Structure formats: structure tokens, C-alpha cells
Amino acid sequence: MTGPTRPRPMFRLGHLLERRAQLHPHRTALVFGDRAWTYGQLRDWIVACARHLRGHGAGPGSVVAYAGASRPEVFVLMYATSRIGGVFVPVNGAATPPEIAYLLADSGADVLVTDAACAAKLDGTATPDITRLCLDEEPPDGYSALNRPPDEPTDDDTPAPVAEDDLALIAYTSGTSGRPKGVLLTHGNVFWSCVNGLLGLDLARDDVTLITTPVFHIAVLSGVGSYTWAKGGTVILEPAFSVDNFLTTVRRHRVSVTFAVPAMLALIARHPGFAAADLSSLRWILSGGAAAPAPVAEVFHRRGIPVLSSYGLTETAAGVTYRDPRDGPGCSGEAGLAAPLAEVRIVGPDNRPLPHGTTGEIVVRSPSVAAGYLGLPEDSAAARDAGGWFHGGDRGYMDPEGRLVVVGRMKDTIITGGENVDPTEVEEALAACPCVDEAAVVGTPDPVWGEIVTAIVVPAEGTDCSLENIQTFLSTSLTRHKIPRRLELRDRLPRTATGKLQRSLLRG
């Protein structure tokens, strides 16, 4: 029997960035708009933020949540929280007030950090009585200002000791019960995920990495940005994605690598300025969140830019497979070989491995696999078998060279533009709509978004059940990406003899 792991500085979230600051303090670490921070300045900001959090009563075990726009403070907060021995909870700033309130309560947040826009959105919403901090200089009532980046170097202090299996992050992902599930990621999970990324991807110390995806995604928080800082490269952070800004930023900053979900790639490839854009600095694009369609990857391949599709989950703290940049575009769904510290295999209903070319469930074994789900011991136990393999519910097969090809999901989660949507959650919201008698939600194929959320509705008699009316009704309770973009009206929904919805029949 083994006991708890002992504290070791190397595993602490943010330790690799701080070590890089010791080695190369004057190298540029982060660029946001017209501001840039060296590694030394970024480390000083993290240390100062940790002290500020302690000044507001936070410490070992404290849960610090952030809800707001993508900005540098998100990374600073995450690493500062790890320095005080706390747990960081990233929240989608575009979520509705009820959704944010639920995540704060479910995670047991002690501190909420937000920006003025999100604070205004939460005004009047019943949220837990916790410490509230605002990133903007004039915080609204009930909030205190979080300190700005220090102008002078900050004296270092000793971070709280953490062990490999101590909790570092609670990252929420859509579940099957109608509510998001909090994935429990330890310092060790994130550390080994970073090592996997560094071993599985070709990153160099002079790489310039562009991040335009929302920072609450685990693929951003513990993904390519962290890998870049571990190597000593530069991260360019954009507050939001637009094709025009993407093309301009790549040219201006000589961006060499970036992360994009397939929907972003499709929009870039279709943009009228794509063909003439200067993308000569791009060595490769890492793609995740959903399978990248082969035709989209082919467009970039013809420009000499490999699209490195990957496979990963929130529960694996980012990617566990990566395509090789030397391979061609490949087929849709091809996600490459397993990273050196991850094992991926395909199993049948009896949990026995299947031969190459045979479709089954994708299972993963790696030190990056999450400890479990917050407050859901049965779900945590069911997700990992006796051999330590994590069952995420995705379907796929291995090609003759052992590369993973993702073909679908055992579960019903919809992936639209790289965002997970639980159909049960949307169905529960639709049930309260006055023009809806019955409703089911499925994902239907879309060339840009991968899938779009589609509502199949039996309308209430005598009502105007239009897509516009449904979207307006849901806009106060669901984040925009969860709101249906397509509506089908039916006389009835297919159900089994026991009343269970036959969702597979709706997709046909």
C-alpha cells in the first residue's frame, strides 16, 4: 500500500514557467494587444497576485474561480492560485448568470474573480456569498480591485508545498445528466500532460504561439500555451477570434504555431483573404475539440501548413495523441499516434482490445488522466476500469500504422465549433418553453461548425413555434453555443416501449 505523494516543487502548476523566468528573465513570454511581458515580469505579476489573494483570505485549499473575457490575468490567476496551494476553476465568461451561479456553487468557490462586464451580467443573480474581486480599476459595488501588474520587480516568496496528487484545477465539461461535471485535475495530471505535449509536438524555444480560442478551455490552460512557456517561447494572446485578426497577427508577429478548433480552420480557409495572406511563418496548426475534416486540412496542406489533429479530453488534461507534421492531410477524424506517456487502444463491449481497422470504444491510460469528477463517485468509478483505462465514450479505430481515427461517440454529446453541448441540458431548458410540447436535441453535420445543435420539437397546440421564438426564449438560460441553430417540427418523437427517447432514429 502506498501513501500520499510527498510535496515536490517540480509538479506544481506554473513551476516550469517560473523556472524559465529564472533562466531567461528578459525573454518575451506574453503579448496581449500593445503590451508585452518578459518571463521575469510575468513571474513578478504571478507572485504579486498570489500575495493579493492571500491578503483576501485565500490560502491552501481555497477554490478561486474566474469568469470573464480572455485576457492575461486568467493565466496569472491560475498560476497564482497554485502558488498559494489553492484550486483554480475556469468558467466560460459567455455563460449565462444561472450557469455561472451553478458552477460557483458546485465547485465550492471561495473567491470569484471577474471583469466589470461579467460582474454587471451577474448583478441581481443569486450567487454564493463569497469574496469578489474585479480585474478593472473601478470595480462595481461588492467587488474589490485585483492588483495590476507590478511596475517594479517583486521579491520572490516561498510557494505553498503541493504534491503530485494534490488538486490543481476543476475544469467543467458537459455530462450526461443535464449538468456540467467538474473534472478533478491534479498538479501531476497537468504536469504529465505538458510533458506529453512536449514529447509529442515539435516545439522550439524560439516558437511564437498564437492563442485565439477562449482561455477557459483545458486545451489552452494546460495545452499549447503551457508547452510554449516550458520551452521558453512567446505566447500571443488575442481576446477573441476573427479571421481578419488571425491573418494580421500571424503576419505581424511571425507566428509559428497556433491552436484552432476545426470550425475556426474552416472559417479561415473560406476567407477571401486566405489565398493572399502571408502565412509563411506558420510551421503547423494544432487542431482539437473535434475531428478536423480532411478537405479543410487539405486546404492548409496545399499552403505548406500541416494541420496536426489531436485527440484529448478535459479528463486527460489536453491531448493524448498528435498527428505527425510529416504525414499528409489524412482522413477525416485521423488524430495521430499516442504521445509517449499515453496509451490509447480500441476495445469492444467486453473491454477486450480490438484489431486495427475495427471500430470500438477509445480508451486511454496515462498519468494525465483526471482523478475523477467532483461529487460524483459513481461516475468517477465507472469511467476507469480495473486496468486503469479511462472510458470517455468516444468511438474510433486504429489504422494499419497505429494512428487513431475518431469516428463518433458512444455518448450523445454534441461538439459544435469545439464546444461540448449536453443535449439533456438543452432539452430541459426547452421543456419550459411555452411553444414546446416535447423536444429532443441532436447534433447534425455542418461544414463549418462540425455539428450544429438541432432541436426536434413537437409544438404546443395553437402556438407559433418558430426557431426565432425558441432562440429568444433560451437566450436567458443557455450559453449561445448551446442554443439550437436548426429546428425540425414533428408530430411525435420516437420512443421505446418504456418511454425512452430513441435519439439515434432522430439523426437519420
Report how far the terminal alpha carbons are from each other.
Answer: 51 Å
Beta-strand content = 25-35%
Percent helix, as a range, is: 25-40%
Contiguous low-pLDDT stretches (5 residues minimum) are none
Q: Spatial order of the strands in the main sheet?
A: 2-1-11-10-12-13-14-15-16-21-20-18-17
Q: What does it look like?
A:
The protein is an alpha/beta fold. Strands 2-1-11-10-12-13-14-15-16-21-20-18-17 form a 13-stranded mixed beta sheet, with helices on both faces. The protein has a five-stranded parallel beta sheet with strand order 4-3-5-6-7, with helices on both faces. Strands 8-9-19 form a three-stranded antiparallel beta sheet. Strand 3, helix 3 (73-83) and strand 4 form a beta-alpha-beta unit. Helix 2 crosses helix 3 (73-83) and helix 6 (187-200) crosses helix 8. 49% of the residues are buried.
Task: Note the topology.
Layout: H1 15-23, E1 28-32, E2 35-38, H2 39-55, E3 63-68, H3 73-83, E4 87-92, H4 97-107, E5 111-114, H5 116-122, E6 131-134, E7 144-145, E8 167-174, E9 180-186, H6 187-200, E10 208-211, H7 218-221, H8 224-231, E11 234-237, H9 243-253, E12 257-260, H10 262-270, E13 284-287, H11 294-302, E14 307-313, E15 318-322, E16 334-338, E17 343-347, E18 360-365, E19 372-373, H12 377-383, E20 390-398, E21 404-409, E22 414-416, E23 419-421, H13 423-430, E24 436-446, E25 450-459, H14 467-474, E26 486-489, H15 503-507
Parallel strand pairs: 1-11, 3-4, 3-5, 5-6, 6-7, 10-11, 10-12, 12-13, 13-14, 25-26
Antiparallel strand pairs: 1-2, 8-9, 9-19, 14-15, 15-16, 16-21, 17-18, 18-20, 20-21, 22-23, 24-25
